[in-house]
Amino acid sequence: MQRIALLDQRLANQIAAGEVIERPASVVKELLENSIDAGSSRISVEVDVGGTKLIRIKDDGHGIHCDDLNLALARHATSKISELGDLAAIDSLGFRGEALASIASVSKLKLTSTTEGKEGWAAQVRGAEMAAVLSPTPHVKGTTVEVRDLFFNVPARRKFLRTERTEFLKVDEVVRKMSLSQTRVDFFLSHNGKQVRHYAGGEESQRVASILGQAFLENSITFSDERNGMILRGWIGLPTYSRSQADQQFFFVNDRIIKDRLVTHAIKQAYADVLYHGRSPVYCLFFSVNPVLVDVNVHPTKHEVRFRESRDVHDFIFRSIHRALADVRPDSQRRIEERDPFAKDVSGRVNDHPLTDEPNQSPMPFGFGSSWTGSRAKPSVLSKLFARDHYQSLPTILEDESSPPLGFAVAQLHGIYILAENTNGLVLVDMHAAHERITYEYLKSASDEEGIKMQPLLVPLAMNVSEAEAELVLTRSVELNSLGIELTKAGEESIIVRAVPTMLANSDIEALVRDVLSDFMEHGLTYRIEQQRDEMLSKMACHGSVRANRKLTLTEMNVLLRDMEETERGGQCNHGRPTWCELSLADLDSMFLRGR
Ligand code: ADP
Ligand code: MG
């Protein structure tokens, strides 16, 4: 039998490092967090060979007192919390007191720091017990951490490292994310002695443009919403600016970037109505909440959080974004984006570094449709849309009205497009797509007014479920009823479905109930009924809408244009395609090389 012995310091730290330090990028993340916590306004990151040879991070923060240098390198040593109460309300990025110790145990680390008005000192760790050796070293105020030969003593980890380029891309990504949450800070990044990024401290929108691209700013909605002390603000991409991958989604909770299923789910739901299946929205969102209400001590990498009031958070995020997207409708400011090849590069790139060129990921080529108007209007003459040939009976729109955003119809093209003239130039409208959206929104608001009607099943349906789900039937009966579902518990693991929403009576009821229950289990709430209802209404709208090849009179076309301006989400059809686009006179001029 082996006897028990205490592990030496280095080994203990290496075990801890296993959880947090996976690759150079994780070192960079931890060190950047420290620099930010130290109140730095300028941070430079230098890496060699993807960070495997060298990572050097230098900041101008408050520094570390020379007597604390060896403590900084010890495990469970931190200046950020001191008692349990602090753990419950963390307002710094770090708090676990183990990053430096972990990194030092798997690399050759040198920590140099100077506090205000003091001399600089450097510390290096040696040996199995990781004793820090101190020496006076000149340094301006701030801290430099040098990490050489990462994993030199952990061959197993070294084997998992990828190519130099891949490792560097991951470092680059970390710097990008950090710089988004700290827009006042200057960030520099260089690779193999060559500076590749410089994000100058300044306006938040400027930083968002340099990380996500100027095109994103132009194709996004900026908003801010507040409820019960929670604040959500930032930029959400227009549905027409969606991507094939979920690779441009940034969500910060109290300035910490996180990945959270609840948040992702809420945002996805908010876009459900306007996004083509399989497309991913682009967003950069900042969520602030009292630190007491969010637990960041969930995982050593601090990538995850747990919200105390997770249902509230989910609901708030969903509703804010849903609302903001609903307000997307045509307005007059929108025009085709100018694609000046000599336009200033705002990507933060300082030279031709071919790192983040992403083919097949560019947004639609024009600044299509839909922009933020900030105002809301009730659907107007929508109800008439169902009356056949109602268009004929409507009055002509007076030409002396102040010019509406989508202007006035001048012709119809191939029975598919409406051509209209507005103050900027030419507007093209996809008749069917536009009408479909208008009809759909009308159907939704009509159904909202009526509420969800419940229909008892002639033959109640028995279902086997988990014990916890059967329990939900009792605890959530009121909410289930308000969704038009009536369930009773039949046994430990079985329930009976007695009534369902009238509108969904012909759908797969068992699947619907299972999904609803699993939503309640996972997220504490569900939008499933609304969603299925919307799907159905969307189908109805599609059938009820103007088909291509129908001849419309100018009056009819004008009515459609006015309705588009009034309709929530009027900028996209139900599948997230644009309903209209604009060619300004300048665009037309440049097409014909006029004025050159
Ligand atoms: P944590 O950040 O969780 O406290 P670390 O191991 O990352 O743990 O850092 C330990 C301590 O070292 C920090 O609490 C902080 O006091 C100090 N420290 C580390 N990096 C810096 C820095 N760049 N500037 C000032 N102090 C720092
Ligand atoms: Mg730290």
How would you describe this protein?
With 596 residues, this protein is an alpha+beta fold. The strands form six sheets. An eight-stranded mixed beta sheet has the order 5-4-3-6-2-1-7-8, covered by helices on one side. A five-stranded mixed beta sheet has the order 9-10-13-11-12, with helices on both faces. A four-stranded antiparallel beta sheet has the order 18-19-20-24. A hairpin with a 2-residue loop joins strand 7 and strand 8. The radius of gyration is 29 Å and the shape is globular. The chain starts with 8 loop residues before the first helix and ends in a 5-residue tail after the last helix. Bound molecules: adenosine-5'-diphosphate (ADP) and magnesium ion (MG).
Labels describing this entry:
binds adenosine-5'-diphosphate, single chain, eight-stranded mixed β-sheet, binds magnesium ion, alpha+beta, 596 residues
